[in-house]
Specification:
The complex is a heterodimer of chains A (58) and B (844). With 58 residues, chain A is mainly α. Chain A has 2 helices and no strands. In chain B, 40% of the residues are buried. Chain B has 20 helices and 32 strands. The chains are: A mainly alpha (58), B alpha+beta (844).
Chain lengths: 58, 844
């Protein structure tokens, strides 16, 4: 049984888009990409971590 | 100056006026000294004191509007001016605001009620506006209320007194672009007892700078933000001075500096607020004396006055270690969750057992909608991914996630061991919990993305489906396409198609859940979906008998012409001669006429050879006839013409009576009448032309009998003969001519001759039963020997013209008669529904 190529393409597209969203989220946390506004969360997190643990992340 | 006689009196009056003026000035001098500078005009004593009830601000197109709302009265002459400091109530105290300071004062006004309570809300309020930063009450005494307003830039403000509304509006122009800057305030809603900051956004003049962000920080949160537990922890600072050097921002605090040993102080807010700008690498915060702990070096620095106390530092360190451990476990859990989640998705998608094969899909469909009697089952082809397989995939991924995550909780050893090593097992539980949440989140994200893709695909799919269905329906209605079986005479709008690879039948080829433009057969072969496209690429077969149809069936106009008559009436010869005549006529007109299939081509070749050689035709087989088909024209005017010629015995046999289905779906009938079978004609020729009569092989029966049988059958079958044309063809005209009987060529004249010859019942019945009847006298000879006025192609040309088939043969075909209504077929009904039906109804 040979699975239609459209099935494979659809699955690959969904998988790639999921990875892209995760990557955009990760880049956004580091202040880059289309979701750069998420960088504020990182700064808050860094600040929180620094205040509460003394650890200073780069 | 010299005085005349009347001058002494004038001088006296002038002196009196001057004295009065001086007296008035002296009276007003006391008030002028009490309020130095440009004091507001003193309102009339009768004017009531304006009571301030509220302060609002909003951004309008191009400016911010700060509105002071009053009750009872409105101050007549409010004042606004830029100052460096606004004196507060106590001597030596000043109201401080962020940004440029605008002093606003209202004379003969108050913000306190009769009991001394405030009437307009908080003394300080912040606005999230590009121009107006904050408003602080400076003083409210002596009938004058004074405010310090912090503005982003010094702009020319405009004051408007709206007496009717009892408002004073101050418009602050904002003639600049703005950008959003984030400001971090302490959130008093602690997380695990720890401090946390939350960012809010402020519109500031573009480009956003650390100075603008810090101005908004020192202005504090707005009232709604304060309601969300945000607050500005100032640690005694009232302002700041800012310097930049090589990516290092120096923040010099003004006022005082005291954090009370708390780990949460003004640096908690300043550092993230300044660090949001990527080019700031570190922040050095100085106390009002200009000192900080680490003035040089790469990291941030805070002054000693903001260092937390030792015990708080220790508590923070312990708490920090716990937090770090928890964070580490959480991070580990996220990594495990990501790895396992990706593994679940990949494994779920790679699984072969969950693929919805065509056979499985057919079984599902049949289980959901059982196939009834006279219906066909769904076609065996791969369904579109978003319509079925997507659910199977996501269900399999979910099952994989449950299985794999469940295995993580199977720990070795008895529960006592886990209890003893509680810290370890607790950490593992935490880690696995985070991993589980991560797996769930990843699965949901993948499912959301997949469904979003499916939704987009289905939207496009729906639009294209509507267009394709509309095109096909339009084509069907305009061209009047049909498919007729040449063997079982079943007529449908949509035939079945045979897969060229596996010979599996596809009974409903329309675009739908099995494919939009193409569908994939279970064997893997790609098949076109629309009838218009499939007709030329696939083998069309009859839905009922599954025998092959003519190529192009259901994609072109389909015209069926049954030829009936008594035995030996000359039907077959007439058909061959008519075909020969049509071929010649179409060829002369440059209209292509071909035989679309091998069977028709062979039959036509034999027929044309026979008719051109002048030989006699052989007796037609008593078995049911197979249509002789030809395709006339090209493009949209292409037409498949099927001619049915059954043996005369078929119309007399009661057993075959029900098998003459081709009569039911005809677009016009040809009745061939042998003139030698008419008694009066035979009597007239008796003894004169015995040889010709012998050659004629006169039909034995009464000519009205075969006609009557067909009309009765049509009536019994519910066929509307009244919408059809009937061509009555008097054959063997050439033989009659040789016998000395020259028949007329005009239809009415032929009808008259028939009536006179004793077949008046047929003439009367035909006129009553059919939409239009025309009479022809035909010599069934080859075209090159045809008798003028008796060409055998004329009857067919006349019938074809009614169906829009243009042939230049004869005088009548050029002028088509009334168009015969298009009969609605069983298959047509299936075009009415917007959705694809997986079963095709069989013809009864």
């Amino acid at each position: 049984m040979r699975i239609p190529i459209t099935f494979v393409l659809f699955r690959l597209t969904a998988g790639l888009l999921t990875i892209l969203i995760l990557a955009a989220f990760g880049l956004g946390l580091s202040g880059r990409g289309p979701l750069a506004g998420l960088h504020g969360w990182t700064i808050s997190g860094q600040n929180w971590l620094h205040i509460n643990t003394g650890v200073r992340l780069p | 100056m010299r005085l005349t006689g009347r001058q002494p009196m004038r001088a006296g009056v002038l002196a009196a006026v001057m004295i009065a003026t001086l007296a008035g000035l002296a009276a007003s001098g006391a008030q002028a000294l009490a309020s130095p500078g440009r004091a507001p005009r003193k309102p009339p004593a009768s004017r009531p004191v304006a009571l301030l009830t509220g302060i609002t601000a909003s951004h309008l197109r191009g400016y911010d509007q700060l509105v002071f709302h009053f009750a009872a009265a409105v101050p007549a002459h409010p004042r606004a001016r830029y100052v460096t400091q606004v004196p507060a109530g106590a001597a030596g105290h000043f109201a401080t605001v962020s940004g440029v300071t605008l002093e606003v004062s209202f004379a003969r006004a108050t913000g306190r009620g009769s009991a001394g309570q405030g009437t307009y809300g908080p003394q300080q309020r912040t606005f999230s506006l590009p121009g107006v930063i904050e408003v602080v009450t400076a003083a409210d005494k002596g009938g004058t209320v004074t405010f310090a307003v912090g503005l982003a830039r010094r702009e020319r403000v405009r004051i408007a007194v709206l007496a009717r509304l009892r408002e004073v509006a101050i418009d602050v122009p904002t003639p600049y672009r703005t950008a959003l800057a984030r400001v971090f305030f302490v959130n008093t809603k602690a997380v695990f007892g720890t401090a946390v900051t939350s960012p809010v956004e402020r519109p500031v003049p573009a480009p956003a700078t650390p100075r603008a962000a810090l101005q908004r920080l020192f202005a504090g949160p707005t009232q709604p933000e304060a309601g969300r537990s945000l607050q500005f922890v100032s640690s005694g600072a009232t302002g700041f001075r800012l310097t930049y050097a090589d990516g290092v921002a120096g923040v010099y605090l003004l006022g005082s500096c005291n954090s009370g040993g708390s780990t949460t102080n003004v640096t908690t807010e300043i550092i993230p607020t300044v660090r949001q700008f990527g080019w700031v690498r570190s922040v050095k915060i100085y106390d009002p004396s200009g000192r900080t702990e680490h003035p040089s070096g790469p990291g941030n620095s805070i002054p000693r006055c903001l260092q937390p106390l030792e015990d708080k530092v220790i508590a923070t360190q312990i708490r920090g270690q716990v937090i770090l451990a928890l964070l580490g476990l959480g991070a580990l859990g996220i990594l495990i969750g990501l790895a396992l989640g990706i593994g679940c998705i990949v494994a779920g998608l790679r699984a072969r057992d969950i693929v919805i094969t065509p056979a499985a899909f057919v079984a599902e469909r049949v289980a959901a909608h059982p196939v009834g009697v006279g219906q066909f089952g769904p076609d065996s082809a791969w369904p579109l991914y978003p319509l079925r397989q997507i659910r199977a995939d996501l269900r399999k991924i979910e099952a994989e996630r449950r299985t794999r995550y469940g295995k993580l909780w199977h720990w070795p050893g008895p529960p006592l061991i886990r209890f003893i090593f509680f810290p370890v097992s607790g950490a593992a539980v935490l880690c696995l919990a985070v991993a589980g949440l991560t797996m769930l989140g990843l699965e949901w994200l993948f499912a959301a993305v997949t469904w979003a893709c499916a939704a987009i695909v289905l939207l496009v799919f729906g639009a294209v489906l509507a267009v394709l269905t509309g095109v096909e329906r339009l084509w069907h209605r305009v061209i009047r396409t049909e498919a007729s079986c040449p063997r079982c005479y079943h007529v449908t709008a949509r035939p079945a198609y045979r897969c060229p690879r596996c010979a599996r039948l596809h009974r409903d080829i329309r675009p739908g859940r099995l494919g939009l433009l193409m569908r994939r057969c279970e064997c893997g072969a790609l098949l076109p979906t629309m009838v218009m496209r499939a007709a030329w690429r696939l083998e069309a077969v009859c839905q009922r008998c599954e025998e092959p149809l003519r190529p192009g069936s259901a994609a072109v106009r389909d015209v069926r012409i049954p030829i009936f008559g008594d035995t030996s009436a000359g039907k077959t010869r007439f058909m061959y001669a008519a075909l020969d005549n049509l071929t010649a006529t179409a060829g002369a007109a440059g209209i292509p006429l071909i035989f679309p299939d091998q069977e028709s081509e062979q039959q036509a070749t034999l027929a044309l050879e026979l008719i051109r050689s002048g030989k006699d035709t052989i007796k037609t087989s008593v078995t049911l006839p197979t249509a002789l088909s030809c395709r006339i024209g090209k493009g949209a005017s292409m037409t498949l013409v099927h001619m049915f010629d059954a043996a005369g015995e078929a119309y007399r046999s009661a057993e075959m009576y029900d098998s003459l289905g081709f009569l039911d779906n005809g677009h016009g009938l040809v009745y061939v009448l042998d003139p030698f079978s008419i008694g009066s004609v035979r009597d007239q020729l008796a003894g004169q032309a015995a040889a010709e009569i012998a050659v004629a092989h006169a039909a034995a029966g009464d000519p009205e009998t075969a006609y009557g049988e067909v009309v009765s059958r049509l009536r019994d079958s519910g066929i509307a003969a009244g919408s059809q044309r009937l061509a009555v063809v008097v054959s063997k005209t050439d033989l009659l001519r040789r016998c000395g009987l020259d028949l007329p060529a005009e239809s009415e004249a032929v009808a008259g001759w028939l009536s006179e010859s004793g077949v008046h019942n047929l003439v009367l019945s035909a006129r009553r039963e059919f939409a239009e009847v025309r009479y022809f006298t035909v010599a069934s000879l080859a075209t090159d020997r045809a008798v003028a006025g008796h060409e055998p192609g004329e009857p067919l040309g006349w019938l074809l013209a009614a169906q829009g088939v243009r042939l230049t043969s004869g005088r009548d075909s050029a002028a088509p008669g009334p168009r015969v209504p298009h009969t609605r077929l069983a298959g047509d009904a299936e075009f009415a529904g917007p959705d694809q039906t997986e079963t095709a109804k069989a013809q009864p």
